Amino acid sequence: MKNALQHLLRPGVSLFILLTLVTGAFYPLAVTSVVSQLFPEEASGSLVSRDGTEIGSRLIGQNFSDPRYFWGRPSATAPQPNNATASGGSNLGPLNPALVDAVQGRVAALKAADPENDRPIPVDLVTASGSGLDPHISPAAADWQVQRVAKARGLTVERVRALVEKNTEGRQWGVFGEPRVNVLALNLALDATR
Amino acid sequence: MSNHAWILLGLFLLVLFVAAKPLGTYIAYVMEGRFRAGGKIEGPLYRVCGIRHDEEMGWLAYAFALLLFNLLGLLAVYGLQRLQVYLPLNPQGFPNVSPDSSFNTAISFVANTNWQGYGGESTMSYLTQMLGLTVQNFLSAATGIVVVIALIRGFARHSVKTVGNAWVDLTRVTLYVLLPLSFICAVLLCSQGVIQNFDAYKDVMTLDVTHYDAPRLGADGQALKDALGAVLTDPAQTQTQTLAMGPVASQEAIKMLGTNGGGFFNANSAHPYENPTPFSNFIEMLAIFLIPCALCFAFGKMVGDRRQGWAILAAMTVLFVALAGAAMTFEQQPNPLLTPLGVDASGGSMEGKETRFGIADSGLFAAVTTSASCGAVNSMHDSYSPLGGMVPLVAMQLGEVVFGGTGTGLYGMLAFAILAVFVAGLMVGRTPEYLGKKIEAHEMKMTSLAILVTPLLVLIGTAISVMLADGRAGVANPGAHGFSEILYAFTSAANNNGSAFAGLSANTPYYNVMLGLAMWFGRFGVIVPVLAMAGSLAAKKRIGVGVGTLPTHGPLFVVLLIGTVLLVGLLNYVPALALGPVIEHLLLWSGQ
């Protein structure tokens, strides 16, 4: 038995070290060097700049609470919403009273910012996303907010609706995922509209 | 189910089979040692390591070799976490991880579970992620594959004492199968926006100001609490968002291909930097099933009868379509508690889901990741509707044999196939046989062990935890859902899945140790009996097909196999499921 173990020990240890170097060092470095050539923007985080300052990533949702902006998905990260160093969802179960409370609070905030709007609110606008960093809302959730944003900015509803449409993506190649609006891109487009 | 959901499911299966078939042939080719060009790399490598590559091992030596190899992995991952503050590539200066959490994570990644008690972006240095976690993503997947290859050899060979050389098998599967596939997958993911860099976390200036309640910290850096235990907060505001960075794509690729599932970030594949677009989501789902599916084809080829592989694959596919359909259907139902609040809930159960994936792409992902023992999540299962959340639970409780993990799925399913021919043999009073090998007492003992270890671990672990204060302390949701959280944790750990009803606070010494043990024994408590069976099968003579032989490649056998999986796999759990998701479903829809 002892002999058998010794027989295994040297191959085991040396193979472990070798494969560790190949898969843990060589492989990630090889991927890094290839994608930094092929997809430099994506590899470094799809960052967005305005007037020379980095103002976010088009993939990472930001928190909006000003009526002049479209609001994104609620975020359950702590301590602040859309905390990109502590991603995660609320993990509230469907029957949990805390979920009902949270949704009630979000409904109240949306209604307070737009008291005339009595349409039912699309569910994605009042439920927290899985990552807490969801950059998108559904076209219905954007549509629900159009009047508020138009009024707060003194723009016509048609103008704002056109911007929403411009920033709406359909299903990827017609088959994957859901139609969606990138909130940061839309709000940047709004800010650029004087 | 919507049209979109049906199209997505159909397209997924189509692309999967088209990609897996040639890969299966390739895996068989590589594992049979016919990839001669590899000799130039392997020759020197074996010489350096002192591996006698032409010397095969009996099952016991093979099992010892794998155990030794995995123990080394355990030490490495534990050590890297405990020492990361002294090591390079730690731009955020994360401190060393606690002993119990390191223990849990080390077992978790070695056992191909990748349960995560920690949040990646706030705990692990880049070095730990790469040299510890990425490496185990490869090596634990390789371990699973070589075990099933040894079992297949048990069927394919006859009258011999050996099942292969563990070192040679591990080397070949890592270098020729996992590495090239991962590389391609990583580049594809990166094209969609998955990040891959070694930068420090990036501060950006957001458009709007964020107002929030910041916890008031004491002198020790811990949050202060009032007399009732509620955290004290102060109003705060910020216009800075800090973006977590890292070498994500390289880890993401093998996380999926190796059915590992441990995310670089806490939110796993829901995080836009891990899974930025619906197409990256599709690639990730394909990557999860690719090798488990290809192994069915490799199995057919290696035992010399491709129809045997098709039969296993057919049984898996039928079970999977049922699970996926259920998940996508239940999640589309509105939550009846939200409608009265002025919400248009027709969009389905969107709590914990991402807009770009919606219901169909999330439900399908949940079925894929839990049918396979991957455990990556693109939506938070804890917030699923009661029956929608039961789908992942059931998928795992079947024993991770519906495609299952890399290797583990196929050897689990082959154990069920042996059980199925045994049951059929009992019915007609004949000695059961499978693929020309008589199934006798020793094989049945090993099969029973392999099938019963995980339900025992799950049910006993859950029972102990609901009885102990330490176990109940972790529960986040009240009522039946809290019980489901504990049941899910042990189901996931013992079946080496790694997904969670993540509300459970499992990063405590109690859960780190209990779940660590469940993962270890759920892994090696199955691998050892499977290898023992491989050894005894290889030693048997092959018997010819007679008039009384049950054909194991036709629809009759597929139905028998599905029935066996459902009866044996699921019946153990029916009482526990009734206490959790079933009660919750009844409460939700009765308006309680």
TrEMBL record, chain A:
Name the record gives this protein: Potassium-transporting ATPase KdpC subunit
Q: Does the keyword Nucleotide-binding apply?
A: yes
Listed under GO cellular component are: plasma membrane
Instruction: Give the family from UniProt.
Output: Belongs to the KdpC family.
Q: Name one Pfam family in it.
A: KdpC
- Major localization class: membrane
Kindly list the places in or outside the cell where this protein is found, as annotated in its UniProt entry: Cell membrane
Q: Is the keyword Cell membrane in the record?
A: yes
- Show the stretches that span the lipid bilayer: 12-30
Q: Where is the composition biased (Polar residues)?
A: 77-89
User: Topology versus the membrane, per the UniProt entry?
Assistant: Single-pass membrane protein
Q: How is the subunit organization of this protein annotated in UniProt?
A: The system is composed of three essential subunits: KdpA, KdpB and KdpC.
Q: What biological function has been recorded for the protein in this entry? A: Part of the high-affinity ATP-driven potassium transport (or Kdp) system, which catalyzes the hydrolysis of ATP coupled with the electrogenic transport of potassium into the cytoplasm. This subunit acts as a catalytic chaperone that increases the ATP-binding affinity of the ATP-hydrolyzing subunit KdpB by the formation of a transient KdpB/KdpC/ATP ternary complex.
Q: What are the alphabetically sorted keywords of the record?
A: ATP-binding, Cell membrane, Ion transport, Membrane, Nucleotide-binding, Potassium, Potassium transport, Transmembrane, Transmembrane helix, Transport
Domain of life here?
A: Bacteria
Q: Where is this region: Disordered?
A: 71-91
The record's GO molecular-function terms, alphabetically, read: ATP binding; P-type potassium transmembrane transporter activity
UniProtKB/TrEMBL annotation, chain B:
Task: Give the family, as the similarity comment puts it.
Answer: Belongs to the KdpA family.
Function of the protein: Part of the high-affinity ATP-driven potassium transport (or Kdp) system, which catalyzes the hydrolysis of ATP coupled with the electrogenic transport of potassium into the cytoplasm. This subunit binds the extracellular potassium ions and delivers the ions to the membrane domain of KdpB through an intramembrane tunnel.
Record keywords, A-Z = Cell membrane, Ion transport, Membrane, Potassium, Potassium transport, Transmembrane, Transmembrane helix, Transport
Pfam families hit by this protein: KdpA
Q: Which residues cross the membrane?
A: 6-30, 59-80, 130-152, 173-195, 279-298, 310-330, 410-428, 449-469, 513-535, 556-583
Q: Which domain of life is it from?
A: Bacteria
- Origin species, per record, is Rhodocyclus tenuis
Protein name (database record): Potassium-transporting ATPase potassium-binding subunit
The protein's matches in InterPro entries, at most eight in alphabetical order, are given as:
KdpA
The places in or outside the cell where this protein is found are: Cell membrane
- How does the entry describe its membrane topology? Multi-pass membrane protein
Q: Does the keyword Transmembrane helix apply?
A: yes
